[in-house]
Amino acid sequence: MSEDDLIALFAPRLPVTDAEVLGSGDDAAVVSVDGDLVVSTDMAVQDHDFRMEWSTGADVGWRVAMQNLADIDAMGAVPTALEVALAMPRDTEVEWVLSFADGLREACEPHGVGVVGGDLSGAAQIVVAVTALGETHGTDPVTRADAAPGDVIAVAGPLGAAAAGLAQLEQGTRVAPAAIDLFLRPQPRIGAGLEAALHGATAMMDLSDGLARDGARIARASEVRLAVESALVPVHEAASFTAQTMGVDALAWALGGGEDHHMVACFPRESAVPAGWVIVGVVEDGSGLTVDGAAPTVSGWDHFA
Amino acid sequence: MSEDDLIALFAPRLPVTDAEVLGSGDDAAVVSVDGDLVVSTDMAVQDHDFRMEWSTGADVGWRVAMQNLADIDAMGAVPTALEVALAMPRDTEVEWVLSFADGLREACEPHGVGVVGGDLSGAAQIVVAVTALGETHGTDPVTRADAAPGDVIAVAGPLGAAAAGLAQLEQGTRVAPAAIDLFLRPQPRIGAGLEAALHGATAMMDLSDGLARDGARIARASEVRLAVESALVPVHEAASFTAQTMGVDALAWALGGGEDHHMVACFPRESAVPAGWVIVGVVEDGSGLTVDGAAPTVSGWDHFA
């Protein structure tokens, strides 16, 4: 099948956006932007970030779209459009490619986000690079750098499900399918980031490498200490159930597991934390991230390194 | 070397832009945009689009940047920023990666374009995906779709050099190094596209697949015929010299060779064509592209298919 033929099948399945002034088919797309542009890029590489035996094309499309939407949301901005570059072996099934488009659409359509352009190419393995575009809506971008002592730390959703899903896939068990689904198709609540920005969040990011490591990134950027209390960390019930069945500690997944993509943010006071967010600790003078007052022991989530 | 260590070496070599409000290091970058955003994505894949034995890292960085800048210029827009995704094998030399950054900078810096963000990942081969961002400056984007009968067709630079360079590399000869250099580092005049837009260009694109095929794309999008006169087509002197030495027809390279990345545009009348552009034909009622009144014979540039 020629590239033109493939594009003719692929393009109609892609999500569209009201922000599109001119879509694909020319040298470049044109997108209307209100205010500053927020832009982020994330790749997904076969055998590095996904496995063909675990993920459908739609799962890969969903995940790479959602990771990028979460990055825009994590700035307190509103995603509008994606550019999608897809390199793949010549023998990649057309059905896989169309399923990939479906996953992009399923992730993007509820948020009014469209794929406005991209590129297709050959490669030895599937490599996807997505660039997400967004715009701020009345707030400054929320970086990682402005958390201050006295702030509270909160997360926008329960943690550990993606790690529990990965553990099941790696062990070939299926005790909590909901966790597997959340590993294959992360479900951060897109819009939580804008909500946090409107509530005065001082620092924010989405959790792609786990609360312990990502929280330490906020601590470093803001030159503060993030003091997390383990008893406050919301553990996803599918992670708890999986951990119980496997005889492991679900908290290790909640603190150390990546890929949940929920927002973690700091707020200047408890009363600023939006409904539905869970406070997990406080910001203090100092550096790094502590759990119950101590440096987190590596053992709990070392296997996610 | 860790990803953080690599980024610490890589990032300072990248070009910067005045449009950057917030650079890399957070979930997303923030770029100021004046008016509509013009966005384009192009990939370069090892062994598909470049070979390690022919191209340095800087050559690859230059080429993928320049392809993307040309796409933005081809809309009559001004490029401002790039997002760069780079996937590579673990054993890729750090020097290659830093050289790649140097090539990005060398291509971008003269145009005030910066790399504002991106992603690094592992892969079986080097895969680069670049998304270029730009903005219109007082003109509407120039698409491929508005050429009209009576327009003249013009190109912004001499053609065939990249094809002549590729031919030399494939044959292991080096009769015209300037052509090899232009294949490895295409030199479209960035800004020619904006110039054409300001002169009222009706349709435009950059020549990545050769005048014959790219011109046919304008013909299809505009529902007209592009009638090219071969005697008018400017052949790059390094292509002429290479062709003479090899005993082949330089015109085939000028019409059929890709990768020159010069602009081709249609203008409503001869007097609208900017200085330095060369008129190569006229737009007529009909469809497709003709050379000297006939469909171009495939034989001349079949080997570029």
From TrEMBL, chains A, B:
Q: List the SUPFAM superfamilies hit by this protein, alphabetically.
A: PurM C-terminal domain-like (SSF56042), PurM N-terminal domain-like (SSF55326)
- Protein name as catalogued: Thiamine-monophosphate kinase
Relay the record's extra comment.
Answer: Reaction mechanism of ThiL seems to utilize a direct, inline transfer of the gamma-phosphate of ATP to TMP rather than a phosphorylated enzyme intermediate.
Q: Which PANTHER family match?
A: THIAMINE-MONOPHOSPHATE KINASE
Its recorded reaction(s) are: thiamine phosphate + ATP = thiamine diphosphate + ADP
Q: Which gene encodes it?
A: thiL
Residues reported in the UniProt entry to bind substrate: 49, 259, 301
Species of the source: Demequina litorisediminis
Q: Which residues bind Mg(2+) 1?
A: 41-42, 119
